[in-house]
Amino acid sequence: MTRPLAPGDRIAPDLLLRAYANGVFPMAESADDPEVFWVRPEMRGVIPLDAFHVPKSLRKTIQQARFDIRFDSDYSGVIDGCAEAREARPSTWINQPIREAYGELFARGYCHTVEAWRDGALVGGLYGVTLGRAFFGESMFSRERDASKVCLAHLVERLRARGFVLLDTQFTTEHLKRFGAVDVPRAKYETMLEEALQGEAEFAP
What is the pTM of this model? Predict the structure, then answer.
């Protein structure tokens, strides 16, 4: 971790993009903590796009088309969902400076959402940042079973179709490992990142 931003400081969008291009991303200790730390892990989580695994039960859910999947239609709703307290996670690292910074990136076309809707309600989603041919996943949430998992599957489908080569998950979890997430050393990740930043891929329609 590097020096934190002081309370009240904002994260400039251009600074945030430069950070991603250098393998760095921001986090906070909690939603109520106004400070932001810059993180550059020794081991980085990625999901190889050509090795993404969809469990059989999830494939069935996708085929049933239980959710209406939308892209980039409700950034505020997604960030609220990712930041809300849940029994398994009473606090998150999404504080006000992070909310504002990614909102500015969304307005500039660098931050994107994948959303699961059901009966007119947002029931799951994820968001992340695109740069070159890389997608940097930030957070996801579910209010209904499998909603975020279906969003992840649709994200990978879109990234594959549109020429992306890197899906960065920051860290791995047992949940993400079910889909093929692996840890890669920092040096290898930076090589992957350098390749992904060469060329362009378009996420939005």
Answer: 0.92
